Every structure is written in C-alpha cells, then in structure tokens.
Amino acid sequence: MHLxxxxxxxxxIILVVLIFLIKYSWDMFFGETYEPPAWGKARMEKQxxxxxxxxxxxxxxxxRLYNFWLQIQRLEKDNVTGDFAELGVYKxxxxxxxxxxxxxxxxxxxDTFEGFTETDLKPERGExxxxxxxxxxxxxxxxxxKHIGGDLSKLKIHAGYFPDSAKGLENESFxxxxxxxxxxxxxxxxxEFFYPRLAPGGVIIIHDxxxxxxxxxxxxxxxxxxxNCNLVPVADLDSSVMIFKPKEHLAVNE
Length: 254
Ligand SMILES: C[S@@+](CC[C@H](N)C(=O)[O-])C[C@H]1O[C@@H](n2cnc3c(N)ncnc32)[C@H](O)[C@@H]1O
Hints:
CATH architecture: 3-Layer(aba) Sandwich
Order of helices and strands: HHHHEHEHHEEHEHEE
Number of strands: 7
Oligomer: single chain
CATH topology: Rossmann fold
Bound molecules: S-adenosylmethionine
Strand content: 5-15%
C-alpha cells in the first residue's frame, strides 16, 4: 500500500524535528559543549585516564572541572613544584577530581570530617547563617578515601579543625590549593596559612565567592586587599576566584 504524498511529507517533517530535538537534548545534557580544545586534544591522544573521563562525564560543574584541569596543565608545564591541598573535602568530590587529574602529586586533605563547628557558624550572616553543625557531617575519612580511590600513598588526611590541623606543616610548599570551606573563619585561616606557602606560579582556588556567602567574600576581600594580590574570577556555577603567586615572588615568610 502506498502512502499519499502529503502523509509522507508530514511524516518526514516530524522525523526531522524529532531527530533535531533528540540531538539538541542529548547535547544539552551529555554534550561536551564547554570542552576546551586542550582537553579535547588530550582526550583524543588518550592522555586522560579512563577513570578521569568517566568521573568527568557526571561531574555537574564542567567549567569548574576544566578550570582545575587547565590550572594543573599550567603547573606541570611551568614545573611548579609543591603539594596540592584541599580545605573543605566533605565526601571527596572535588578531591577525587584533583587526584585523578594529578595522581603523582601529594594531595593533602583538610576537614573536620564532621561538618562545621559552632565557633565558625556563630558570626555568619546570609545563607551561611542558616547552616548548622549537621550540614556536611554525614561523611567519614574511610568513605572519602574509598570514594577517591587511586594511589593511597599520595593522599594525606589532616582531620580536625583547621587551622589546628595544619600544625607541623609550616615548612611545606603548595602548588595548588582548593579552598571550599564556605565560612569566614576557615577561609581566612586558609588564606593566611596557604598563601605564604604557595610556590611561585602556584594558585589558590576559592569556591563560592558570591553574594550568598558574605563571610567567605569578606575573608577573601580582606586578605587580598591586605596582601595586594589580584583576584581572578572563574565563570563556574558558584563563582570561584583564583589567587596566583607571582613567579618571582619568594614563597616564604610573608
Ligand atoms: C562545601 S563542603 C566541601 C565540599 C567538597 N569540596 C566537595 O567537592 O563536595 C565544606 C566543608 O568544609 C569543612 N570545613 C568548614 N570549616 C572547617 C574548619 N574550620 N576546619 C575543617 N573543616 C572545615 C566542612 O566540614 C565541610 O565538609
């Protein structure tokens, strides 16, 4: 039986629209719209581990992810030495990214692994004032290590209240520090501890620099004004900012 011409045309139009919609939705949810050329090249040349590619697929903030990766590429290219560190680990999502992207670096992980403390929450305003000691408390060192996986000898856990948990590390040097601790006190303490120990060419990335986190923004603004360093904004979902240590800068005793 032959379909009338009109029905055939209608069917073709519907088919084309459907294909277009499916492709558009697929690209929107699974496409690599934000993939920088360098990442694409590294992927094609099989320089990215299957674990990193798999984890990256489901990581919700692609701009944050690619920014970490591009910074790490730069640090490797420029031979910036030093450990990596994260202040604010929770269940280890961003820590896992950092370890997958730079498995040979020592990654120092600072967290109470029990959530925020009353002392840090008390002075907060804005969104942070609605948080309690229950937030981010549902984690543990074992769960984090299991989640990150990889080379356990490169993962150093510094559990407890920061900056107390950094005692004994005064002579260390850092190439990349991710500060994701939401509140005024830990962010201020993080900058005061890590910036003087940042290697020349090194970078501190601070997550959540936006109006919802007043204390955090104040801690960053106060410190960068005092130290006269530039803030570089990142267009990721929660507005990270970066602080770089100039290459000619001495890494000790500011
Ligand atoms: C937003 S979560 C970190 C999220 C994590 N980076 C991720 O990718 O899922 C903030 C973390 O900072 C930690 N934190 C905040 N203040 C701290 C302090 N003074 N000492 C240690 N950890 C702290 C909390 O326990 C919490 O796990």
